[in-house]
UniProtKB/TrEMBL annotation:
Belongs to the protein kinase superfamily. STE Ser/Thr protein kinase family. MAP kinase kinase subfamily. Its EC number is 2.7.12.2. Pfam families: PB1, Pkinase. Residues 18-109 form the PB1 domain. SMART domains: PB1 (SM00666), S_TKc (SM00220). Keywords: ATP-binding, Kinase, Nucleotide-binding, Phosphoprotein, Serine/threonine-protein kinase, Transferase, Tyrosine-protein kinase. This is mitogen-activated protein kinase kinase.
Length: 370
């Protein structure tokens, strides 16, 4: 029980914590926190954002006793840092030394671009705040208190969905980007499909993704999956959509031609709807075509957010057999590329094509001598 070491009147809960935020080439800013043990990772990022408004920070580091830097990217890692720090404070107390502030080193990233793939202007929604952060002491200049944690959380929560209201049930499947869960939304009693994607990106990019996803609220087509909202928790985004009880088309072995014809019509209608909104799907394939027992066919996982597409692409492994050649070779992507993928999705036998792709990759590797 670490906190007992502070004695009955100085438990960890009432210890004032001083965090020294080290700014590269510009010294440091001391931040006094009254409720150190309750501090959340997001609160620290928020304050770093106020100290370094020109940079976007998703993580910070602290030094252990050997001077090695340890990265903090989540509440768990925050807890580990605080318990390490409080143990050093105890040692300093025992030895009658002056208590050193907790030094942290923000890790900055580059700010994002202004426009998305559709040429639409990106609105980051970070308006001025009326509130100041209660956790921040006078050590910070008051005019730098731009956003409260509550406001930041609001920016990072698109729609009415939040983690506390969701009960995760079964895993529906894993893809390249993340995992999809069947879940229950307590307030509405709705069954959802929640796609959870791990994204190690800046706070600024998180906000941009949220803003770009807003267009999904405007999608109103019976051929497009319903969107309920999205939110970030630490470095994970959860995207909540309509649950389709028939799953995706990739699990159906042989689909009779007349059924396939009807499915193809629905998919084309879904795609033309997206194209009319200047959205390219970018990932047309059977696992992104969902069906339900009401006989509906709906498209999901379309590339509405450039930042989301880019961030997932960074961790993407393998060759997508449905991808158009111009996409594979990195040329311009257009409606015709979606049409290619559509054709491949309905072509048989697909295994043959996969063999060609795999064989081609193997030959290329052999030629490269790897
Ligand atoms: P990729 O990551 O390349 O898109 P994928 O489509 O196979 O590959 P996910 O998008 O993560 O992977 O989806 C995993 C599985 O979850 C899908 O194959 C599908 O069966 C299921 N799934 C996805 N969304 C829903 C939904 N709204 N309702 C029911 N099942 C879904
Ligand atoms: Mg998918």
């Amino acid at each position: 029980m670490l906190w007992l070491a502070f004695g009955p009147f100085h438990t960890m809960e009432n210890q004032v914590l001083v965090i020294r935020i080290k700014i590269p080439n510009r010294g440091a800013v001391d931040w006094t926190v009254n409720s150190g043990p309750q501090l959340l990772f997001r609160d620290v990022l928020d304050v770093i954002g106020q100290v370094l408004p020109e940079a976007t920070t998703t993580a910070f580091e602290y030094e252990d006793e050997d001077g090695d830097r340890i990265t903090v990217r989540s509440d768990e890692e925050m807890k580990a840092m605080l318990s390490y720090y409080y143990s050093t404070v105890m040692e300093q107390q025992v030895n009658g030394q002056l208590i050193e502030p907790l030094q942290i080193f923000p890790r900055a990233c580059k700010p994002p671009g202004e426009r998305n793939i559709h040429g639409l202007k990106v609105n980051t929604r970070a308006g001025p705040s009326q509130h100041s952060s209660p956790a921040v002491s006078d050590a910070l200049p008051s005019n730098s208190l731009k956003k409260s944690s509550a406001e930041l959380k609001k920016i990072l929560a698109n729609g009415q969905m939040n983690e506390q209201d969701i009960r995760y049930r079964d895993t529906l499947g894993h893809g390249n980007g993340g995992t999809v869960y069947k879940a229950y939304h307590v307030p509405s009693g709705k069954t959802l499909a929640v796609k959870v994607i791990l994204l190690d990106i800046t706070l600024e990019l998180q906000k941009q993704i949220m803003s770009e996803l807003e267009i999904l609220y405007k999608c109103d087509s019976s051929y497009i999956i319903g969107f309920y909202g999205a939110f970030f928790v630490e470095n994970r985004i959860s995207i909540c959509t309509e649950f389709m009880d028939g799953g995706s088309l990739d699990v159906y072995r042989k689909i009779p031609e007349h059924v396939l014809g009807r499915i193809a019509v629905a998919v084309v209608k879904g795609l033309t709807y997206l194209w009319s909104l200047k959205i390219l799907h970018r990932d047309v394939k059977p696992s992104n075509m969902l069906v339900n027992t009401r006989g509906q066919v709906k498209l999901c996982d379309f590339g509405v957010s450039t930042q989301l597409v880019n961030s997932i692409a960074k961790t993407y492994v393998g060759t997508n057999a449905y991808m158009a050649p111009e996409r594979i070779s990195g040329e311009q992507y257009g409606i015709h590329s979606d049409v290619w993928s559509l054709g491949i999705s309905f072509m048989e036998p697909l295994q043959l094509l996969q063999c060609i792709v795999d064989e081609h990759a193997k030959t290329a590797k052999r030629k490269a001598g790897t």
